[in-house]
Amino acid sequence: MSSTFKTQILEGIPEHLPAPKPYEKDINHAPKRKAILSKEEEKLALRNALRYFDKKDHKELILEFKNELDTYGRIYMYRLRPDYKMYARPISEYPAKSKQAAAIMLMIQNNLDYAVAQHPHELITYGGNGGVFSNWAQYRLTMKYLAEMNDEQTLTMYSGHPMGLFPSHKEAPRVVVTNGMMIPNYSKPDDWEKFNALGVTQYGQMTAGSYMYIGPQGIVHGTTITVLNAFRKINKEPKGNLFVTSGLGGMSGAQPKAGNIAGCITVCAEVNPKITQLRLDQGWIDEKITNLDDLVTRVNKAKAEKETISIAYLGNIVDVWEKFDKANVHIDLGSDQTSLHNPWAGGYYPTGISFDDANDMMANKPEQFKIEVQKTLCRHAEAINKHTAKGTYFFDYGNAFLLEASRAGADIMAENGIDFKYPSYVQDIMGPMCFDYGFGPFRWVCASGKPEDLAKTDAIACAVLEEIKTNSPKEIQQQMTDNIQWIKGAQENKLVVGSQARILYADAEGRAKIAEAFNQAIANGDIETVILGRDHHDVSGTDSPYRETSNIYDGSRFTADMAIQNVIGDSFRGATWVSIHNGGGVGWGEVINGGFGMVLDGSKEASKRLKSMLFWDVNNGISRRSWARNEGAVFAIKRAMEIEPNLKVTLPNTVDDAIIDSL
Q1: To 10 degrees, the CA torsion angle through 302, 307, 312, 315?
Q2: Alpha helix positions (H), 506-653
Q3: Taking the CA of residue 174 as centre, how many other CA atoms within 13 Å lie in the half-sphere pointing to its CB?
Q4: Confidence grade of residue 641 (pLDDT, cut at 50, 70, 90)
């Protein structure tokens, strides 16, 4: 490790400003944000940015920051980008007094790794606007605080800004993160544009601003389960059958890999040439095609030969749906995973306009851009409707596609005028099969950075799951089987991008037993430190009426008590850090979601913490789902109460439909 890395971490914001850095055009940059601030607000944004720096530097920086604001719509402080390479260095290489703090530094670095981050120079990990920080001064200050922190301090993070180190105690979280926690009436899309431009809030997405993203692998497993069960739902084998979708960015980039693992033909459209090439270089797609006629020929060949293949189409997804309709290419499964939570700022692009021209329109003619996007959404929905009339099974992938299409006036509503024509994948697949039973995206990172540690943890997790499966009830046998198959194939599928990390869907029993086995292996010296976490897209962490809680039918899906209770409960049951966000994958103002990180160091204290926290982290959500009268959740919470005598949950009484209908 070079001394430059340690030195730059410890100096925080340097006493002497580094030289300005050139704008690197070969990096995938965030699109220019629309100008939304008044002249007085622009001055306020500059005041806010300059408060990070000594007065002696203000005259030099103000013109530079004004230029960034005018050119990009944000003040990123590019000059402050560190000179060292961004990646998840082994935990021993961080200049930290606290191992827990070093683990958090590792995860921050991973989120900004060029191989992981969507727009690394703008500190955006995925989703077009999912930021780790808003500017590079925040990054530098945060890393300095983490280096200085001891185990009786807690760092508070206000939407990317490190407010400071506060006295706490050893069992408290080392970091508490909040992102975008707006007063409710100030949570519309333009509010994000305005307050983010002012530098006072940010969109933390789900695992970007909470330092728990592990690259596309983080969603590959859930996508694989979704695709497998979607084919099961239509009584088809994946082999030789076609899944059509779009988006190759941060999370959506997982789709073609998941299609390969499931064994189908996947066509995934993407308009960004840099992202498409990156996924090809990383091996997450097999082929790239730029011509629609060539695409039709290639798909028909794959169908005839029953290939398992992933094809990226560099172009607009609407053109693919329309072309396949005209060419009579049957689509078995259809979905969409563009970032429609962010439709007016790069999350979805209009057809008939080049990528560069669309970006120009987005920044300079935002109202026209919105019109073009909504016209495209209507065409998108119309093309999907034609295919579903021929037998295609289409599901909303929780990216706000149906929501934004409905707002655009597309023919996407059910006959009752309230519901959508097509179900959310949570309603149809993940909710009743996984979330209600407590299964969700449990993940871990080997802090040593050693592939051999990851291989050992895979083997440990597999052995634990196989043992649990022998006594599991029939209701969860399929979930257990899918997870064992997944973990056995994890190495050969080459899922690692960035940190040595793994994900699998596990319930409370599985998570706790796997974590305890890891902790014991660390104590025995078999492996080094492990960092636990999960996607917020889980049983308990997220209240999202159009995705995670879309299969809650008692009227409470628009409430956010579960997510708030979850993060509070995690914080005093042993989490190393906790986070709560407004935003996430379905849009600013549309969801509240929370997450955690937990460091396992082989100690008895870590064993105690993991048992307490992981049990709560899952069963909080199962209890809420049970109270909503979800049958699988009622079964799961009753089973949890049998296992843990100290758990006593209010169970629902069901009412006969005849009594209600008699009114």
Answers
A1: 20
A2: 508-523, 561-573, 604-627, 631-643
A3: 23
A4: very high
